[in-house]
């Protein structure tokens, strides 16, 4: 029973930390969406909306863990509950990808003047919020490989730090090696918990969009002829997010239907 109680305390800690992150993310979402509308930055608007879906995905993931832990009828079906959470998260990701693509194309067809400095400041704030949220969720600088889902001893040590600490460690490791490991970033298939992978993808997409938006805005500010980079970045972000969505949706569906 001690292991059972320990599992509960770890999940309770994860939930309380994630509630804080959801609140911070929602506030940042409102600021970025408002700033995107005021400054006419499609990249910033896209980042704001995706911030909102990040909060929603964290909420979905939280509920899936809570449901699996508290509902007696699903005690033996944890994998199915996790897959359902991952599937729901994938649907949200897909809708966001479509919205970002549509709005970006509209900005190309009907260009508007972008207030670069204001948009850059807000985009940087958004990126800093991602970093702050990662710290709240318990990132620690220590060795962490991409085989944590296959190494049970390592899993046990990581579990003591909470589910979200493991998620954020994976994200930080990947982001630090983005240049040499981009294929792993866009295909994080080693995360076998589909519910957790959904949260991972949202965090990764947030950071990716934030960085790309900042780069596009800085380039557009100094090279006016490249102002089209802002909506193009929006389209690129939409494509990458759609790819993640389809992959997660496919694996979640297969697990739910018992196809693999």
From TrEMBL:
Keywords: Ion transport, Membrane, Transmembrane, Transmembrane helix, Transport. The chain crosses the membrane at residues 20-37, 49-68, 80-102, 114-137, 199-222, 228-246. GO terms for biological process: intracellular zinc ion homeostasis. It is found in: Membrane. It comes from the Archaea. GO terms for molecular function: zinc ion transmembrane transporter activity. Its main location: membrane. SUPFAM superfamilies: Cation efflux protein transmembrane domain-like. Residues 20-257 form the Cation efflux protein transmembrane domain. The keyword Calcium does not apply. One of its GO terms (cellular component) is membrane. InterPro entries: Cation_efflux, Cation_efflux_TM, Cation_efflux_TMD_sf, Msc2-like. It is a multi-pass membrane protein. PANTHER family: PTHR45755, ZINC TRANSPORTER 7. This is Cation efflux protein transmembrane domain-containing protein. It comes from Marine Group III euryarchaeote CG-Epi4.
